[in-house]
Amino acid sequence: MPCRTYQTPEEAMREVAKEIILRAIKMAKRKGRTISSSKAAWGRGVDVATLDPRTPEGSRRLEAFLTPVRRQYTWYGLGPPEESNAVSWRSLNLPLWRRGLVRFLVTVSLFMKGTPLKNILYRWMGAHIGKNVETMQMVWLDHYRRELIWIGDNTLIRAFTRITAHGYEGAGRFRYGLVEIGKGCRIGAGTGMGPIKIEDGVRTRHSPRPIRAPLPCSSASPCYAGMIGRRMCEG
Question: Does the pTM of the predicted model rise above 0.90?
Answer without folding.
Answer: no
